[in-house]
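hiii, so i know i said id send this last week but things got crazy w the move. better late than never?? heres the sequnce for the chain we talked about at the cafe, plus the structure i predicted for it. fair warning i was half asleep when i ran it
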Amino acid sequence: MNVALETRNSYENFVLESDIMYFRVGEHGLVSFHGKNFHIKKRMSTEQIIEITTGGAFFKVNTDCYVNTKKIVQIQEGKVFFEIKGADSKFISITKLRQHRLKDILQQHKTDAK
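okay and structure toks below
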């Protein structure tokens, strides 16, 4: 009996809000997406970049980097952590001003969830 299971290749067909922790927008439309165990570079049009950067799921932490607010575990000492803090943790640096704004957004998400 042959059973073909549909498997999703996260490297090619990732879901932005659930698979990506953060992404960086580079020159000439090159966007670098970072997931838990992978990172992918894709060339995107200006319209596509505007669409993903203006949505509510991602927050701009510096000039070219956006973090997924649903994947944040902790914000501490100018860093946004996505996994358990330790040797293998993934994090992004953030300025103090944006850190306070992001904490307010996360607190609002918690309040809305109740």
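btw The two ends are 48 Å apart (CA to CA). thought thatd interest u
miss u guys!!
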